[in-house]
């Protein structure tokens, strides 16, 4: 598969990136709003809801690499990625209708089936889409530019979706069906036009001369685990996602209970995403000078400094918290952006060494790392602040308990970001090394095609 430098026009990249709206727009509603709304308004017991969500995470850890492996092995007249994206969009839309417009009461069996189906559709949608984005160009810098467009759209999506519950609270508070319906309607409105724009914006490259062999799931997992560069990127992404998940899980508690500004919590949460939209082009410009892995390290170290700055926030004072929230927004996508741009480069190296293109499989591990990080954040941060004496109901929190909340909220993400940066130190796949890989790929795959054509001629 010849992947010479291809600079795509901004309009085409913007159209291609619109699929990030339904992909990322559902993340925070599912993680932040749905559990509470289902428990409060639809009679789903919290313990049962937690069990369903835990099983779904385990299911996703198996389904995502399987989807990635299958789409890598797909060959047909409509391409490798397009059929999976269309099928995933259909499954996503059908299950979203149940999740966002649920019956009352909501039978647990129906909820579990809808969640499992929805996340399967999401995997079928996003994994081939991210793999396709890595295949749009083989150029080191152009790949970063492509991911920058996706990062901007991905930051815009949760901002638009989270605006709705905030607006509804001002007009008709405590109306769970209205909040769910509004978020679901926006996601479905995003889905169809973004699907059409993405599929029509750019062309898929022809499939490689050799497709990966059919392998059992354990062998697929072994392929992932034995690629050292992929594991470094994966674990670094886990650190980024863990830091973000800890911050998200404790943000409202920190602003409401420690800082003592409950009316400002939602506005500050949204403010972070406003500046997150502007962050992508800034980090793309930095990456042109430093390269991807050095830019990712710089972004992660900036995150460490920002989170340590939270230790200086004084209850009742707003200015430092606002400044750190703006800085957090400007830095929040740096690690995600660079690491996703690096995965296609790692897949190129793997293809040169093995002869097999497993781009979608390599991208699927990001979904696994994100789910593991979300589970880790909930399983570590919340029990830890409770052990330190913090009461989430807001009653009887001693100064020591609030200090414990501050330490976990600030130091937890700082340590996770530092871990992410350390894993990327000395990463060997820079622009020069990748250029050599691309040159070798063009030579080897040209020879394979010539041999295949000679065999057909004879």
Structure, described:
The protein is mostly helical and 458 residues long. Helix content is 79%, strand content 0%. The chain has a single domain, classed as Growth Hormone, Chain: A, CATH 1.20.1250. The two termini are 23 Å apart. Helix 3 packs antiparallel against helix 8 (176-201) and helix 10 packs antiparallel against helix 16.
- CATH fold name, please? Growth Hormone, Chain: A
Q: What sequence of helices (H) and strands (E) makes up the elements? A: HHHHHHHHHHHHHHHHH
Mean pLDDT equals 84
Q: Between the first and last Cα atoms, what is the distance in angstroms?
A: 23 Å
For the record, the CATH architecture stands as Up-down Bundle
What is the total number of structural domains?
A: 1
State the share of residues found in helices, binned by percent. over 70%
Largest sheet: none
Question: Helical stretch count?
Answer: 17
Query: Which stretches are poorly predicted, pLDDT < 50 over at least 5 residues?
Result: 1-5
Class derived from helix and strand content: mainly alpha
Radius of gyration: 22 Å
CATH class: Mainly Alpha
Corresponding CATH superfamily:
MFS general substrate transporter like domains
Strand content: under 5%
Assign an overall shape: globular
Number of strands: 0
Q: Could you give a quick summary of the protein structure above?
A:
With 458 residues, this protein is an all-alpha fold.
What's the arrangement of secondary structure elements?
Layout: H1 10-17, H2 20-25, H3 27-41, H4 46-72, H5 82-100, H6 108-135, H7 140-171, H8 176-201, H9 217-226, H10 228-258, H11 265-290, H12 292-309, H13 319-331, H14 334-354, H15 359-387, H16 399-424, H17 431-457
């Amino acid at each position: 598969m010849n992947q010479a430098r291809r600079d795509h026009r901004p309009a085409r990249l913007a159209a291609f990136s619109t699929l990030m709206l339904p992909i990322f727009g559902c993340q925070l509603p599912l993680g932040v709003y749905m559990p509470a709304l289902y428990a409060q308004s639809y009679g789903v017991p919290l313990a049962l809801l937690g069990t369903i969500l835990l099983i779904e995470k385990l299911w996703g850890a198996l389904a995502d690499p399987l989807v990635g492996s299958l789409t890598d092995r797909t060959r047909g007249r409509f391409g490798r990625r397009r059929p999976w994206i269309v099928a995933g969009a259909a499954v996503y839309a059908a299950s979203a209708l149940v999740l966002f417009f649920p019956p009352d009461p909501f039978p647990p069996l129906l909820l579990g089936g809808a969640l499992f189906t929805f996340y399967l559709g999401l995997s079928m949608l996003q994994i081939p889409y991210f793999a396709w984005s890595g295949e749009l160009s083989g150029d080191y810098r152009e790949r970063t530019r492509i991911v920058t467009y996706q990062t901007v759209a991905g930051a815009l999506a949760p901002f638009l979706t989270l605006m709705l519950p905030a607006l509804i609270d001002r007009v008709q508070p405590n109306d769970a069906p209205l909040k769910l319906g509004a978020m679901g309607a926006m996601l479905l409105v995003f889905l169809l036009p973004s699907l059409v724009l993405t599929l029509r914006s750019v062309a898929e490259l022809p499939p490689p001369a050799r497709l990966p062999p059919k392998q059992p799931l354990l062998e697929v997992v072994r392929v992932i685990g034995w690629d050292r560069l992929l594991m470094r990127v994966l674990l670094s992404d886990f650190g980024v996602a863990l830091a973000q998940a800890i911050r998200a899980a404790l943000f409202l508690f920190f602003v409401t209970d420690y800082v003592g500004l409950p009316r400002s919590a939602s506005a500050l949460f949204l403010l972070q995403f406003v500046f997150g939209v502007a962050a992508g082009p800034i980090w793309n410009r930095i990456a042109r000078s430093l390269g991807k892995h050095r830019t990712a390290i710089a972004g992660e170290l900036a995150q460490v400094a920002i989170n340590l700055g939270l230790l200086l926030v004084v209850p009742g004072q707003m200015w430092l918290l606002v400044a750190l929230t703006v800085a957090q927004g400007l830095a929040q996508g740096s690690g995600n952006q660079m690491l996703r741009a690096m995965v296609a480069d790692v897949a190129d190296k793997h293809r040169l060494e093995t002869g097999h293109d497993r781009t979608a499989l390599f991208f699927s591990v990001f979904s696994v790392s994100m789910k593991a990080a979300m589970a880790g954040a909930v399983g570590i941060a919340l029990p830890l602040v409770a052990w330190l004496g913090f009461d989430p109901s807001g009653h009887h929190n001693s100064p020591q308990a609030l200090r414990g909340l501050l330490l976990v909220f600030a130091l937890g993400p700082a340590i996770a970001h530092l871990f992410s940066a350390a894993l990327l130190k000395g990463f060997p796949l820079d622009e020069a090394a990748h250029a050599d890989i691309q040159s070798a790929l063009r030579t080897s795959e040209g020879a394979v095609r010539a041999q295949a054509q000679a065999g057909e001629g004879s």
